[in-house]
Amino acid sequence: MHFKARAGQKLADVILQDNLKKAKSKFVDRRATAILDLDDFEATRDSATALRDRVLNDLDLWLEKFEQQAAKSGASVLWARDGAEICWLVIDIAHRHGVKKAIKSKSMLSEEAGLNQALETAGIQPVETDLGEYILQISDNEPPSHIIAPVFHKSKEEVSALFARTHHLPAKDDIQALTREAREVLRPHFLSAEMGISGGNFLIAETGSVALVTNEGNGRMVTTLPKVHVVITGIEKVIPTLEDLATLMRLLPRSATGQSISNYFSLLTGAKQAAESDGPEHLYFILVDNGRADLVGGEFAEMLRCIRCGACMNHCPVYQAVGGHAYGWVYPGPMGAVLTPLFTGMQNALDLPQAATLCNQCGVVCPVKIPLPQLLLKLRAKQVEAHLRPFGERLGLRAWAWLALHPALYALATRIGVRYLLWLARDGKRNDRIRVLGVAPEWTLGRDFPAPEGKTFRELYAARKETA
Amino acid sequence: MSSRADILGRIRAGLGRDDANAVAGRSALDAYLAAKPQGPKPKVDGDLLARFREKSEQLSSTVDAVATPQEVPQAVARYLSAQQLPAQAVCWPELASLPWQQAGIAVEARAANSSDLLGITGCYCALAETGTLVLCSSPNTPSAASLLPETHIAIVPAGRIVSGMEEAWQLIRRETGELPRAVNFISGPSRTGDIEQTIVLGAHGPYRVHIVIVNTEK
Ligand code: SF4
Q1: What confidence category does residue A444 fall into, taking pLDDT thresholds of 50, 70 and 90?
Q2: Measuring from atom 8 of ligand 1, which residue has the nearest CA?
Q3: Is B199 in the same domain as B107?
C-alpha cells in the first residue's frame, strides 16, 4: 500500500487523530524553551554539523580507528551488510553464550532487521524494555510510529486495555500506575536475561566506546546486568572525541524531548574487569551498512549526519496530520521520507518524497542542519529521471513541454484554460473559488482551487503595452 | 569478500580513496584526536555549587548539604525519616567506613540486588551546567547501586563539581588515564514520557534521587 492510501486511512481514524492532537505541541514547546539556555544555539549547530561532516568525509578511516580502539578495550567488532546479516550474527553470538532470553533497549537497527521475529524463530525470547517499545511488542509486534516516542499514536486508554489483557491484572486508568505495572512486569526479565541488546547513539573513535542515551534507565539495565552485551549501530554513528560527544549531547536531548540532558547517559568501554560485581563479560559491536555505505560521498551524504532526534517529525505538518505509520517503514516524518527510498530502493517508496509540503520547518529545527526539503526535491528529480512517475503525470508533463515550445499554441491553450477555470468557478456563491476541479477532481476533495483573475499574463501584458 | 571488506570498499569508492590521500587523511585524523577541539559551551560562571544545586532541583532531585563526610549518615537518616523510608541500604564498598550505625541506618557494602530499596553511592564528579552526577564503575563503585533500588542517595564532595562535560572528560583523562568500563551520567530520577508524552518519574531506575553535598570549606 502506498503513502497516499495509508495517509487516507490515518486521516479517517478518529482515535488516532485525537491522540496526535494531544501529543502534538508538547515536544515543540519543550524544545523551544530548552534551546534558550544554550547561549549560542546556532554556533552549537554549526559545530555539530562540521564534526559530523568531518567523520563522513573520511568515514573509512574513522571506522578503522574506532575498530582499533574498541578491540584494544576488549570488545569484538563485527560488520553486517544488511538486516539478515544482523540477525545471523546476533543469533550466532546468542548460541555461543547459551542465551535463552535477550533484553533489548531501543534500537532502530533492530527494527530495520526485524530482529525480534528472527530471535523468536531461533528459540530466543526477545523482551523490549523501553516502555514504548514494550507496549508495541505486546501489541502484536506493532511497528513504532515515532523514532523517540514509539507509541506516539496510542492513548492511555488503549495502553490500559492492552496491559489488562496481557498481564491479567485489573485495568489501571492513570499513566503513573501503568508505568509502575510495566516496571514490575519487566524487572524479572532484566534479572534473568543472559543477553542485552542495545542501539548506540554515538560511537567514539578516540576511545572505542559507545554512548547510550535513555531516560527510563532500561539502557543501563540492559548494558549492566546480562553477561553479554551486543551493540547494533549504523556505520555512520562514529564521532571523533569525547569533546565532540559533549557538543552533540547539548543538542540531542534538547532537540528530541526538550530536556537539557537525558536522565541517563552512559559511556561504555570494553567488558567488565575481573573484580567488578556488574557489567557484561562480553561486549560485541555490530556495525551495520544496510544502505548507508553507498550514500557516502554522494549527493545524499548529508542525510548521514542525522542523530535521530526526531525534531523534524515533531515539527512536520504532514507527520502531525497522519502519524508515523503512514510512512510505511521504520523511519517516519521528513527524515524517513528521505531515508526510506534511499535504504529500501526508490521504487519501493514512490510517494514518500512527495509526502511533504516543503515548508522547511524540518530544515530549520534539524540540529545538524540537514537540508531535508532539498533532499526530497532531489529524490523527486531522481524519480523523474528514472521514469518512475505515473503514466498520467509523465504524459501531462510531456504535453506541457511540447506546448511550451510552441508559443502561439501555448497562448491559445492558456487562454482557453483560464476561461475554463472561470467557468468552473461560476456557480459558487463566491466566484473566486473552484469547488471541483474538472481535470483533477481528487485535488479538490479537501480544499478549493482558487480561480484565476480572468486573463492570462500574456493578455494583460499585451493590453498594458497598447495603453503605454 | 568479508562484509567488512565490502562495506569499507564501497565507502572508499564513494570517497575516492587512494593510498596518497589515505596517508594525509590519517595524519589529519591523528592531529584532530590530539587537539580535541571543543565546541561552543554555555557560560557556567560564578558559583558552581549554587548552579549545581539549582539545576539538580530542576531535574526533580532533592539536595542537602553537610560540612564533613562524618555528618553524611545523619543527613541520610533525616531524609529517610522525612520520606518515611526504611533505614536500610546497600552502599558502595568505598563508603562502608562512614558512621552509618550511629545514625541508625543498617548499611551493607556489597553489590546491589533487586530487593534493595535504597542505594547509597558517591560520585566521580558532578556537572554544574546540567545538575548531573558522574559515576565511574569499578570494583569499589559498582553501577547497580545507583540503578536497581527505588531510592538513590549520592554523596557529592563540593570540590568535585566541575562546570561541564568537557571538564569531566579532562578530569578522567588526567586522573585515571584509561576510561572505566562505564561512565554513567545521572540527571535526576528515571522517567518516561512514552504514554501520551506525559512525564512520569520512576520508570526502570530510581523513583527518587537525593544528593548530599559535602562542603568541607563551609
Ligand atoms: S533529520 Fe535532523 S531533525 Fe530529523 S531526526 Fe535527523 S537529526 Fe533530528
Answers
A1: confident
A2: A309
A3: yes
Total domains, chain B = 2
Mark whether B19 and B83 lie in a shared domain: no
Q: What confidence tier does A1 reach under pLDDT thresholds 50, 70, 90?
A: low
Domain A38-293 has CATH 3.40.50.10420: yes
Cα A313 to ligand 1 centroid, rounded to whole Å:
8
Q: How far is the CA of A310 from the centre of ligand 1 (A)?
A: 6
State the burial class of residue B84 (Cβ atoms within 10 Å of its Cβ: 0-12, 13-18, 19+).
exposed
Q: Is the pLDDT of residue A244 over 70?
A: yes
A264 touches B: beta carbon within 8 Å = yes
Domain identity same for B112 and B71: yes
Spatial CA neighbour of A191 closest among B154, B187, B192, B147: B147
Q: Are residues B131 and B60 in the same domain?
A: yes
- What average pLDDT does range B12-35 have in this prediction? 97
**Amino acid type, A115:** L
Query: Does the CB of A445 have a partner CB in chain B at under 8 Å?
Result: no
The CA-based angle A245-A246-A247, given to 5 degrees, is: 90
- Distance, in Å, from the CA atom of B184 to the CA atom of B98, rounded to the nearest integer, reads 24
Domain ranges in chain A are 38-293, 310-389, 392-467
> CA A127, CA B163: separation in Å to the nearest integer?
39
> Distance between CA B4 and CA A83 in Å, rounded?
15
pTM of the model: 0.92
In angstroms, the CA B218 to CA B215 distance is 6
Statement: residue A429 has pLDDT above 70: no
Structural domain of B157: 48-214
Residue B111, pLDDT above cutoff 70:
yes
CATH value at residue B208: 3.40.50.10420
Q: Report how far residue B203's alpha carbon sits from residue A129's, in angstroms, rounded to the nearest whole number.
A: 10
Which residue owns the Cα nearest ligand 1 atom 4? A312
| Average pLDDT along chain A | 91
pLDDT in tens, A30-65: 899 999 888 889 999 999 999 999 999 999 999 999
Summarised one tens digit per residue, pLDDT across range A104-143 is: 998 999 999 999 999 999 999 999 999 999 999 999 989 8
Q: How far apart are CA B89 and CA A193, in angstroms?
A: 25
